[in-house]
Write a structure and sequence with these properties.
This is Methyltransferase. By secondary structure, this protein is an alpha/beta fold. Helix content is about 40%, strand content about 25%. It is built from nine helices and seven strands; from the N terminus they run H-H-E-H-E-H-E-E-H-E-H-H-E-H-H-E. The radius of gyration is 19 Å and the shape is globular.
């Protein structure tokens, strides 16, 4: 990835068509990380999608988790990916066709306005979407609206207050992280999930967590470069600090002394079978 490329965004409204391939590369790379796979497997087992049910993945991206849901739902079930970005939807549809999954479809929509009737969905999953939303509580309320009585939801999101980056000057790392926090509408999403689900009237059943630890190769990868470049663009660090930050991280990785992580939380909840008291 060339340093001169346009900074990569994970927000659907800021993803340029030319960036879809790069974004898919990063998402695919992250999907292979053992930590992501462990938390996703935990969430899928906890949701227990059953044959014949209707399951929705909000912010479905490349569609990988829609396919995972489909495998549990059988031929009479339906797995639906809700994705606002047309380029990612096209890619997901292509991959679903290659996988020959007949009970999968992808629809345009966003977390604030899910294209489903009230109480019409059995299972909802949503991963690393709320951190990009200005009003995450509205999205959680939408999930509560579409869930059937007894329906299950698992929301997975990062808490960037838990981020660790080593080795580098702690003051420079702190400045870079604070710059990133300022760019994210909801950077501490992970710690807020329990309260948001409860406020929406859902019953929280469990909370899981997993530190997403990046491999040594991440020191040369797009995420570290993006973090440093954006901190420089924001004026949080200067040119010399930018150069030194990248040098320290890459030198650390070359010596086997590199750590980059953030903790993701997964909140499992269900819709009560009893109507709320007015």
């Amino acid at each position: 990835m060339a340093d001169s490329e346009q900074p990569l965004s994970f927000r659907a409204d800021r993803i340029e068509p030319s960036q879809v391939e790069r974004l898919a590369f990063v998402l695919d790379m992250q999907a292979q990380l053992p930590d992501v796979r462990r938390l996703r497997a935990w969430a899928l087992d906890a949701l227990s999608p059953a044959e014949g049910e209707r399951a929705v993945d909000v912010g479905s991206g490349t569609g990988s988790e829609v396919l995972a849901l489909a495998a549990r739902l059988g031929p009479t079930g339906e797995a639906i990916g809700v994705e606002p970005n047309a380029g990612l939807r096209d890619l997901a549809e292509q991959r679903a066709a290659e996988a020959a999954e007949p009970n999968v479809r992808f629809v345009e929509g966003d977390a604030y306005a899910l294209p489903f009737e009230d109480a019409s969905v059995d299972v909802v999953r949503c991963e690393r979407v709320l951190q990009h939303l200005e009003a995450p509580e509205r999205a959680v309320a939408e999930v509560a609206r579409v869930l059937k009585p007894g329906g299950r939801v698992c929301i997975i999101d990062s808490d960037w207050g838990t981020a660790i980056l080593h080795p580098a000057d702690p003051a420079v790392v702190r400045a870079a992280m604070e710059s990133m926090h300022a760019r994210l509408p909801n950077p501490f999403s992970g710690r807020l999930l329990r309260g948001q689900l409860s406020t929406a009237g859902l019953v929280v059943d469990d909370i899981g967590s997993q530190a997403l630890v990046q491999p040594l190769t991440a020191a040369e990868g797009p995420l570290v470069q993006m973090l440093a470049d954006r901190a420089l663009a924001d004026g949080a660090i200067d040119e010399d600090q930018h150069t030194q930050l990248l040098h320290d991280l890459r030198a650390g990785a070359a010596a086997g002394d590199f750590h980059m992580s953030v903790t993701m939380f997964a909140a499992l909840a269900h819709q009560s079978t009893h109507p709320p008291v007015e």
